[in-house]
C-alpha cells in the first residue's frame, strides 16, 4: 500500500473528533488495516498496531492522540498550509507517525503504534496502555516545530480553603475575616519556593512555579466572611508529585496563618488527572536519533502531555510538526490552527529514519 501522509491528514482534519472520536478512529483503523497490518481497538479505546521482526531487539512506541478540543474548525488548504481543528494538535503528528510506522520493517525488535482517544480530557486511554515486552523508548506526537523535546514541567492545581468565623461587619473584631486572612497568606505563596525541601531547579526546566489564579469569598456585603478559597496553578519539576505538592503547600500555609484561621489544601476531584514533570537525558539514543534525523533543537516542551505516563518506563521524547503558538498568537486549540505541509513530510521522514537507526 502506498501511504500519503498529507492525503491522510486532509481526511483526518475533515473528520470531527471533538465530541466523539469514533469516526476518526475508524479512519485510522481502516488505513492501517488496508496496509495489511493487524490493528485492534482495546477496551479503553486505544488503537494499537505492531510491526514485529521476530528477532530480539528494542521496542519503540509511537504515541499520539486522535481527539481534539471543541469546537470543530473546518478543513481548508492554502497552498502549503493545512488549516482546521486538529491540523497540528495532533492530526499532523498522527499523519507523520502513521507514515513512519507503515514505512518501517524492523530488522530487529518491534515498533508499536499506540493512539489514544482522550488526551485532551481524561487520558484514560494512556493510563490503560500495557505493553509486552516493556518498551525501550517512546516518541510522543505533539506540535514541536520539529524540535526534539526531552522534558516538560508537570501541571497541578489545588484549592486553598481559608476559614474564619462570621460576624456583623459593624463589629468586625468579633469574627475572623477569612478574606483578610487569605489576602495575608498571598505573601506566603511567594515564599513557598524558599523551603528547604523545595525541588531544585533543573538545567532543562528551571524552577517550579506557583501562581494564584482565582479567589472567591464572602456571602453578603455587611458580614465578616467565614470562608475564602484561592485556586493555585503549580508547574512542577521532578521529582515532585501532586500529593507531595499538596502536603507541602498545606504545611507551609498553616505555618504562616494565625491560630484562629483554618487552612486546608485540596486537589480537585475531576476526571482530568495531573500530569507530572519528566526529563529524558540528551544522551539517550532516541533523543540523538531524532535530533540527527530532524535537525531540530533539543529543548523542553511547554505543555502537559501523555508523555508523563511513559517517561517512568523508558526514555521519552515529544516530537512533531506544527506549533503551539507563533508570532501572531495561539495556533493549537485556536480557530487559526494550521500545520505546514512540509513539516508533516519532514516529521514522517525523521521518525522513519530514527526507527531505522534504533531497530537496525
Quick description:
This protein has 360 residues and is of the alpha+beta class. It has helices spanning 5-14, 22-34, 91-103, 124-128, 178-190, 242-256, 285-294, 307-310, 341-358; strands at 39-41, 47-52, 59-65, 76-78, 81-83, 110-116, 137-141, 148-152, 154-163, 167-168, 209-217, 223-224, 227-236, 262-266, 278-279, 298-301, 316-319, 325-326, 329-330, 338-340.
Write the layout of secondary structure elements.
Layout: H1 5-14, H2 22-34, E1 39-41, E2 47-52, E3 59-65, E4 76-78, E5 81-83, H3 91-103, E6 110-116, H4 124-128, E7 137-141, E8 148-152, E9 154-163, E10 167-168, H5 178-190, E11 209-217, E12 223-224, E13 227-236, H6 242-256, E14 262-266, E15 278-279, H7 285-294, E16 298-301, H8 307-310, E17 316-319, E18 325-326, E19 329-330, E20 338-340, H9 341-358
Parallel strand pairs: 3-6, 3-7, 7-17, 8-16
Antiparallel strand pairs: 1-2, 2-6, 4-5, 5-20, 8-15, 9-13, 9-14, 10-12, 11-13, 18-19
Describe this structure in words.
α3 (91-103) packs across α9 (341-358). This protein has helices spanning 5-14, 22-34, 91-103, 124-128, 178-190, 242-256, 285-294, 307-310, 341-358, and strands at residues 39-41, 47-52, 59-65, 76-78, 81-83, 110-116, 137-141, 148-152, 154-163, 167-168, 209-217, 223-224, 227-236, 262-266, 278-279, 298-301, 316-319, 325-326, 329-330, 338-340. The strands form 6 sheets. Strands 1-2-6-3-7-17 form a 6-stranded mixed sheet. Strands 11-13-9-14 form a 4-stranded antiparallel sheet, with helices on one face. It has a 3-stranded antiparallel sheet with strand order 4-5-20. The chain is α+β, with helices and mostly antiparallel strands and 360 residues long. A hairpin with a 2-residue loop joins β18 and β19 (329-330). The chain folds into 2 domains: 5-152 and 277-358, Zn peptidases (Aminopeptidase, 3-Layer(aba) Sandwich), CATH 3.40.630.10; 154-266, 2-Layer Sandwich (Alpha-Beta Plaits).
Amino acid at each position: 500500500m502506498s501511504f500519503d501522509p498529507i492525503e491522510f491528514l486532509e481526511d483526518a482534519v475533515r473528520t470531527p473528533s471533538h465530541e466523539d472520536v469514533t469516526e476518526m478512529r475508524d479512519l485510522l483503523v481502516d488505513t492501517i488495516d488496508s496496509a495489511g497490518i493487524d490493528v485492534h481497538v482495546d477496551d479503553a479505546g486505544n488503537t494499537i498496531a505492531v510491526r514485529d521482526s521476530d528477532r530480539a531487539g528494542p521496542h519503540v512506541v509511537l504515541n499520539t492522540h486522535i481527539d481534539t478540543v471543541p469546537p470543530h474548525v473546518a478543513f481548508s488548504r492554502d497552498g502549503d498550509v493545512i488549516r482546521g481543528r486538529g491540523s497540528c494538535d495532533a492530526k499532523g503528528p498522527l499523519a507523520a507517525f502513521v507514515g513512519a510506522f507503515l514505512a518501517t520493517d524492523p530488522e530487529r525488535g518491534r515498533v508499536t503504534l499506540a493512539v489514544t482517544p482522550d488526551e485532551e480530557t481524561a487520558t484514560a486511554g494512556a493510563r490503560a496502555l500495557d505493553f509486552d515486552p516493556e518498551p525501550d523508548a517512546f516518541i510522543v506526537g505533539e506540535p514541536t516545530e520539529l524540535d526534539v523535546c526531552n522534558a516538560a514541567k508537570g501541571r497541578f492545581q489545588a484549592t486553598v480553603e481559608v476559614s474564619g468565623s462570621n460576624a456583623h461587619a459593624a463589629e468586625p473584631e468579633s469574627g475572623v475575616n477569612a478574606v483578610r486572612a487569605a489576602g495575608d497568606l498571598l505573601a506566603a505563596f511567594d515564599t513557598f519556593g524558599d523551603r528547604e525541601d523545595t525541588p531544585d531547579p533543573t538545567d532543562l526546566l528551571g524552577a517550579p512555579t506557583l501562581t494564584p489564579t482565582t479567589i472567591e469569598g464572602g456571602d453578603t456585603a455587611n458580614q465578616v466572611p467565614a470562608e475564602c478559597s484561592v485556586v493555585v496553578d503549580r508547574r512542577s519539576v521532578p521529582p515532585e508529585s501532586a500529593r507531595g505538592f499538596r502536603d507541602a503547600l498545606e504545611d507551609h500555609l498553616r505555618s504562616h496563618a494565625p491560630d484562629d484561621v483554618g487552612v486546608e489544601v485540596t486537589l480537585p476531584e475531576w476526571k482530568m488527572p495531573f500530569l507530572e514533570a519528566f526529563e529524558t537525558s540528551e544522551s539517550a539514543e532516541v533523543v540523538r536519533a531524532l535530533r540527527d534525523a530532524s535537525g531540530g533543537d533539543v529543548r523542553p516542551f511547554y505543555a502537559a502531555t501523555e508523555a508523563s505516563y511513559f517517561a517512568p518506563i523508558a526514555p521519552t521524547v515529544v516530537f512533531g510538526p506544527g506549533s503551539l503558538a507563533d508570532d501572531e498568537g495561539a495556533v493549537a486549540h485556536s480557530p487559526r490552527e494550521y500545520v505546514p505541509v512540509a513539516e508533516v513530510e519532514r516529521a514522517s521522514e525523521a521518525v522513519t529514519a530514527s526507527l531505522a537507526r534504533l531497530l537496525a
